[in-house]
């Protein structure tokens, strides 16, 4: 009976040599990469924060710029046709959008040759596009630089691993190589993640910006066509 109890008690004990599952959190993984890995990951994290801020700041700005009253151009053409130039300028100022600023620039040139009005609108359009694209190029830089910074960490990690291997005294232990390998792998993954996020964010903003540019061009052409209509 005592033997049976001992066997039951022993069944509850872990068997010698049984493998124990080991988990590793992201924080522990980054910390295992040593000082070099943590510095590289820190730089990548800063780039990710900058890319996220620029993306959302530009996205909201572009969305605000794309909002134009569907009846705006009809009102402008009515005012211009009736000679109410001041009313048309007030309407443009109230809209306060890239399209309204372009049309307002054209209205301020009414009375001059059509070519001069077109040139004024084009010059104003370049300034508006510049404002829409402000800081977007930083996203393109981050999307290209982040993977290279990650690969730099990979090279540093491999150098550390080879250095530790050279000083291992002829014995190869995974614990000896762990720090360098962690640095190599974590920085590569981090760099690729930041690069992918920056690349997607950049291209999405480019598409959104192009839609606003096309909107400005369409309304400008419509305005010039109205001025060119025979009275």
Automatic annotation (TrEMBL):
It is a multi-pass membrane protein. The keyword Transmembrane helix applies. InterPro entries: ExbB/TolQ_transport, MotA_ExbB_proton_chnl. Coiled coil: none annotated. The chain crosses the membrane at residues 36-56, 136-162, 182-202. Keywords: Cell membrane, Membrane, Protein transport, Transmembrane, Transmembrane helix, Transport. It comes from the Bacteria. Residues 95-217 form the MotA/TolQ/ExbB proton channel domain. It is found in: Cell membrane; Membrane. PANTHER family: PROTEIN TOLQ (PTHR30625), TOLQ-RELATED (PTHR30625:SF17). Belongs to the exbB/tolQ family. This is MotA/TolQ/ExbB proton channel family protein. It comes from Winogradskyella maritima. The lineage of its organism: Bacteria, Pseudomonadati, Bacteroidota, Flavobacteriia, Flavobacteriales.
């Amino acid at each position: 009976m005592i033997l049976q109890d001992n066997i039951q008690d022993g069944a509850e004990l872990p068997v010698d040599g049984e493998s124990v599952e080991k988990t590793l959190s992201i924080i522990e993984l980054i910390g295992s990469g040593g000082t070099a890995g943590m510095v590289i990951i820190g730089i990548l994290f800063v780039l990710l924060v900058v890319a996220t801020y620029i993306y959302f700041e530009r996205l909201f700005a572009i969305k605000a710029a794309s909002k134009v009253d569907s009846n705006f151009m009809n009102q402008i053409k009515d005012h211009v046709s009736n000679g109410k130039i001041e009313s048309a300028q007030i309407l443009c100022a109230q809209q306060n959008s890239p399209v309204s600023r372009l049309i307002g620039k054209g209205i301020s040139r009414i009375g001059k040759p059509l070519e001069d009005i077109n040139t004024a609108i084009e010059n104003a359009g370049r300034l508006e596009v510049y404002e829409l694209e402000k800081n977007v190029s930083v996203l393109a830089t981050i999307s290209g630089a982040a993977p290279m910074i990650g690969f730099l960490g990979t090279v540093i990690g491999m150098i550390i691993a080879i250095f530790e291997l050279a000083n291992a005294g002829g014995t190869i232990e995974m614990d000896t190589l762990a720090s360098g390998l962690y640095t190599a792998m974590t920085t590569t993954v981090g760099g690729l993640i930041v690069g992918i996020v920056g690349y997607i964010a950049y291209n999405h903003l480019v598409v959104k910006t192009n839609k606003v540019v096309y909107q400005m061009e369409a309304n400008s052409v419509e305005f010039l066509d109205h001025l060119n209509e025979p009275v």
